[in-house]
Amino acid sequence: MARTIDASFTSEASVEQVGNTFGQRTYWLDRIAAFGGGIVLDTFDRADDGSVTVTTSQDLRRDALPGVLGKLYPADLTIHRYERWRPTGPREFAGDIDVRAVGAPLTGSGTAFLAAEGVGSRLTFAGTVAFKLPVVGGRIEGYLATQMRQAIADLNSFTAAWIADNPQSRSAT
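Structure for DUF2505 domain-containing protein, as requested:
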C-alpha cells in the first residue's frame, strides 16, 4: 500500500523568480552539486512556452542505502527522477514529479503547485511513494515518505537561497 505525502511550504521568492530559476540549467547543476549523492543531470529541456523538463538519475551503492534497504538489496540501485514544471496561469506554476527505481520495487509520483502568496510564494505538494515488498514494505514507505517531505523542504530552501545569490534569476527571461 502506498504512502501519501502532503506538504506545503512558503518562500520569499516569487512564482516568477522560481519559474525563471527552473528554466536555468545552472540552477539544476548547482542543485545537484548541493545535494550530491551520485545524482546526474540526464536531460534538461526548456520549451518556448516556459515549461521545463528535467530528468536525473542517481546511482545508489549498497553501502549508501539506509540500514534495512542495504540488507534487503545487496545489489546497487538506480533512481530515475522526472520533473516537468510549467506555467499554468498568472503567477502560477505546476509540476509533475515521477520517481522509479531500477533494482527495487520503488515508485513515487506527485504533483506540485506554486502560487503567489503576498510578495512570495507557496508550494503545495501531494504525492505517493510505494515500496512493494511484503511485511516490511509499509515501514520502508513510511521512512521514505518522511525523507521525501524533508527533501521537499530542503529543496524549497535551496531554491530561495539560490535565487537570493543569483541576481539573474530575479527577472523574467
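Helices lie at 15-22, 25-35, 67-72, 137-165.
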